[in-house]
Amino acid sequence: VILLIGAGLLARSSIRTSAIAEGLQSGAWDKVLSLDAEDKTALVGRATQRLNLSPPDIDGAFKDLTLAEQIDGLAEGLRVAQGLAHAKRAAASAKTNKISDAKQDLETARTLGAPDPPLSAAKQALAAAYVRSAEQSLQRGDANGVLSACTAAEKLGSAGIDLSKLRAGAFVVRATRLEQSGDLEGALLAYDEGQKLGWQPLQSSKQ
Prior knowledge:
Blueprint: H1 2-26, H2 29-35, H3 40-51, H4 58-71, H5 78-95, H6 99-112, H7 116-140, H8 143-155, H9 164-180, H10 184-196
Helix pairs in contact: 1-2, 2-3, 3-4, 3-5, 4-5, 5-6, 5-7, 6-7, 7-8, 8-9, 9-10
């Protein structure tokens, strides 16, 4: 009887091992994890799969990656998957104007060696967030805020985004305030910078 029980257990173990191997080969991550909840390869694979969904399941991916790292911090593909997760979260945060969070995630994604397409997408999303910040600063009359945000956007490679109008607007705001404070020389210099960037003073029409 004992021998029969042992043989049965070995058979079930062999079937389970074969099912896991088949699942890993085919990318059936949920199936593998239903058999072994701590399979590091399946955890990394499922996390990557979640990140490639539209929209990505970022929270679910981070849960899988956190568990995989606890099991084996050097698991194959873990570092790249973590980089991808941070890049995706950076893009998502940037789209909701959470610039500080996006900036931190983008830096982590770079350090972890995130793949280029999602890394570039995160950079573009953050650049767009900085442009929105510059626009809001201009509406508030915050010239320094405009120029700072424009510089940050430019450093991210804001291809196709025209920052000159925003910068020109910032210099006009600065010039107006300097003029109001009596600093005419400073005002003229600021107006000049605005004109270099394309700002044109309104011309009064002659009757």
